[in-house]
Structure formats: structure tokens, C-alpha cells
Amino acid sequence: MNLAGLLRDNAARLPDKVAVDAPEGLHTYAAVWARTQALMQWLQAQGVQPGQRVAGALRDTTDHLLLHFAVAGLGAVWVPLDHRWSAAEKAAAIAAFAASHVIAVDPPAQWPVTDVGFAVGSAVGSAVGSAVSSVMGSAMTAAGVEVPLAAGDDAPWLISLSSGSTGRPKGALVTHTQMHERFISQWATLGFSAADRFALVSPLCFGAGRSFGMAFLAVGGTVVLRPPPLSPEQLVEAINTSASTAVFLVPTLMRRLLALPGEERLFPGLRRLLVSGEPFFPSEVAQFRARLSENLIGYYASSEGGGISVLQPAEFLTHPDSVGRASHGVELELVDEEGCVVAVGETGLVRYRGPGCARDFLDENGQPAASDAAGWFMPGDLGTCDANGYLRLVGRAKDMILRAGVNVYPAEVERVLREHAAVADVGVVGEPSASHGEQVVAFVALQSAAGGGGLSGSAGVGEDSLACSAEQLLAHCRERLASYKVPARIVFLSALPKAGMGKTDKKALRALLATVS
Q1: CATH architecture of 199-398
Q2: Which residues pair with 336 in a beta bridge?
């Protein structure tokens, strides 16, 4: 099974159905398959061979989405890069993951070969939108000569990148079969179908944008491509005017939507509003349901293994502090540091396995990394699980604060601070302490006096922020937390630094500790 075969089969089955609704127009399944074939021919003309790695640093376009299928169709391996990275960051990833071909928007005149240590073979160079346009509609395509699909199955087609401990990305080798299994899990547990119109508003270089975009084309649905960044107003208009029925959003963006004027529900036509990417808090659920959509669905996932657990819409009312139960086909456990399963209700490290979970990994230098012989993957999160299988995350293992020998989980402190009406955003980290080993520090962005979040700027408290002192927030914590969990200090920022997909950048917060008092 080759992933490109799923798109080919839908073109034969649904030739006149709209596959992609993009800013430049509507594309039927017949048209997107013809375009994918042209992309495959173009890649072949650049010398791309089965097994070679093709790095892409592209904007979010229809061609970018279809390139995933084109690369898969040829049996090559896709290495997704963020086009916003610096030239040096791109070059380092190209070198580490041994990409022999590069497709990039606005590439430098010459890749810094002396820095990466090898010549980038057959670099494609210019943007797909211009370079491929000369191929579209050419005699080669018009002749109707279809490029045969390479063998797929257990061959890798993607190096899925995630953050490495050094700040450089590491990768998981995802096969055709494993990606297909992730699609199946999404269809089974998220309820997405060919009848849906999915608003793709996330970058395609990230796992969520790539996976959901491909999954909808694989099932025969319609992808409504609306490239980010979008303002809250633009996002509402894009989803509603396109009659989208499903979308994936991160809580950071959802909180900005809450600040829009009015009281009407913003997305009355959504059948599924998928929430993932970072923790959300029980106190926010009622606001999200009332202002955005009742059809919230929580999705806990990783780039290495796809979906881990799902919280269905009705379960937001009964288990708002949970990330749900194991996804379709997933086996989920909590274990201690020795790998022994912990008792129900006890905190442990999350591990899971399933048919969509990668088995082979690469470190920051592109070298094979250790993997579990039994197929378990540990995303680095700590959690508890109740008798009915509902998983509750308490924080990242690397973020846990050890204060005077007692574990403090940042997510718990963040949840309490989030409940304060003046708080728009919060991030909690540990700081070295001579007396306690570590102490708790909370970085807080305040709501604006106009009702919106304090989510712009980088430092200091804006003049339009709601009046709230550090002592008031500490008193709020003392009423709700054990004394050892109460922050030693509160640091106000106009906005918290964000990493990919809107997650709070804890590494950046730790770096700020030395500069704030």
C-alpha cells in the first residue's frame, strides 16, 4: 500500500467532487490527482529516486499539500522544514537528515555548503508554485502517461520532526502503513468522514496540519485550505463562509477568539472543533462551549505516534480535566522509572503503542536513536489514570519541579492561576534555590481591560491590563494549593513566548529567569 494510492483511488471514485477549496479556487479530485502526477513527473526530472530524502521548506499551498502524496508516490522520504527558519537552521536539518533534494521558497543564492559539510545534491531551489507551473498542463501531463507508484507498506515516507533536547529537531521514521493506520484511527475516534469539510488553518510543516490535511483527502472529504496566519476575525470568516464542518485549533488561538465582541456562538456550523497542541483548563470548557462550539473534541497526540487519547464532546461535561481515553487501536499505560505499571490514581510516565506508532527514530544528528523493542513510545508526559481509563496529564517529566524533595507539577499550578479572572495566560517553571533545591515561579499575562487577553508584546504589563497584583495572585494560590506548590514569585509579561503550534515555550521562560527579579 502506497499512500498516494488513496488519493488516486478517490480520483477514480469521486472525480468531480471538490477535494481542495483553496484561495486560488476549487480543485476536484480528478484535478488534484492530475496535479500530483505532474509533481511526481517534476520530481523525477530533478532526479528524485525511491528511498532518497526530499526536504521541503514551503508556504501553505495546495502544491505543498499534494507534494506529500507525490513524494510518497515515488517511494521517497519527506523531510518537513519550517520555511520561517533561518538559512542556518534549514541547512543544519538538511545535513543532519541527509536530504539529497531541497524544495524551498526564497532559498539563498547558495546553500551554506561549507557550514553543512556536504553539497546539497540536485537542489530544486525555487518555490513549487513557480517551478512546477511550467510542468502543469505540459505535453508530458496531457499525454496521460501515469507515473507508477513505488512500493509502500513498511518503507518510510516521512521523517516526522519534533523538538530535540539540544534545540535541534530529532525525527521519527513513519512508514506508509503507520501513516495509514493514523488516518484510520482519526476516522474511527474523531468521527471525520467524506461528508466533512475540514478547515486547514495550521501550518503544513507541523504534524497536525500535515496529518489532518492528508487524512481528509484519503477519506474523500474536502480540505478548505486557508493558510495561516489568520487574525481571530479572519479565522471566523474563513470557517463560516466556507461552510466548514471541522477544524483543528490550539487553546491559545481559542482564547483569542473569546475576546471577540458579541455573545453569539462563533461557529454554529461546526460538527467537530478539535482541541489539541497544549493543555487547556477545566475552567475554560464552559466558555469554549458557549462562545465557540458545543462540539469540542479533545485530542492528545504526538508527532512520533499519532493519536494517544480522545475526549468526546459529552465527556467534556463529565471529565473536563481529562484528555480522554485511548484512541482506536492504542494501548496506553502509566509506568514508573523502572517501567512498572503504576496503580490506578498514581502518577506515572505515559507510554503507548499501536499500529500507527513509529518504531525507528533518529537523533539530532540524524543517527539511529534507541527505541523500545516492545514498541512502546514515551512522549515525556506525566499523568494519572482513573478506573475507567480516563487519562489526566499533570505535566511534562522534564518540567516537573522538585521542591525540597517534593514533586510539584506545573500544570496544577497553572490550572489554579488560570481560574483567576485577571489571568489571560500562565506558564510555571522551576528555578534553582539554595534552600529548597528548586522553587516555583509563575509567569503571568493579564487580561486586558477591554476584555481581551494580554497576548501581544513580549515583556512588561500593558497599560490596558486589568489591575491585579502579584500578592493577589499568590493569595488566590494559597487558598487552593498546598503551601509548597504556591509560587515563590510572580513575573508579569504582556505575553508569554510561544513555540510551535502555540505551545508555551518553557525553555524561553527559564532563560528569562536570570533577567527578571
Answers
A1: 3-Layer(aba) Sandwich (3.40)
A2: none
Output the nine-digit C-alpha cell for 301. 497526540
pLDDT, tens only, 254-280: 988 998 999 999 999 999 999 987 767
Of the chain, the end-to-end C-alpha distance in Å amounts to: 58
Nearest CA to 284 among 292, 427, 500?
A: 292
Q: Provide the CATH topology of domain 400-515.
A: GMP Synthetase; Chain A, domain 3 (3.30.300)
Total-model pTM: 0.82
How far is residue 383 from each of residues 8, 266, 387, measured CA to CA in Å? 41, 33, 14
Q: How far apart are CA 343 and CA 351, in angstroms?
A: 15
Question: Distances in Å between the alpha carbon of 96 and those of 156, 170, 207, 366, 420?
Answer: 17, 9, 19, 5, 45
Q: Where in the chain is the domain with CATH 3.30.300.30?
A: 400-515
CA gap 182, 211 in Å, rounded: 8
Residue type for position 91: A
Question: Which residues sit opposite 223 in a β-bridge?
Answer: 20, 198
Tell me if the domain spanning 4-18+25-152 has CATH number 3.40.50.980.
yes
Confidence band (pLDDT; 50, 70, 90) for 399?
A: confident
The DSSP element (H or E) to which 394 belongs, if any, is strand 391-396
- In the beta sheet, which residues pair with residue 18? 28
Structure-model confidence comparison of residues 407 and 215, the more confident one: 215
- Cβ atoms of residues 23 and 122 within 8 Å: no
Q: Please check whether residue 108 is in contact with residue 130, taking contact to mean a CB–CB distance below 8 angstroms.
A: no
Collapse the DSSP code of 205 into the 3-class scheme (helix H, G, I; strand E, B; otherwise coil) and give the result.
Answer: coil
The three-state secondary structure class of 499 is coil
pLDDT digits (tens, 9 = 90+) for 420-471: 999 999 999 999 888 888 899 999 999 875 444 333 333 455 445 567 899 9
Cα 168–chain centre separation: 17
User: What residue spans in the chain does CATH classification 3.40.50.980 cover?
Assistant: 4-18+25-152
Cis peptide before 497, with omega less than 30 degrees from 0? no
Pairwise CA distance, residues 95 & 117, whole Å: 7
- Over its C-alpha atoms, the chain yields an Rg (Å, rounded) of 23
The per-residue b/e assignment along 301-310, b for 16 or more CB within 10 angstroms, e otherwise, is: bbbbbbbbbb
- Nearest-angstrom CA–CA distance, 258 and 237: 15
With CA atoms as reference, report the closest residue to 429 among 321, 512, 360, 322: 512
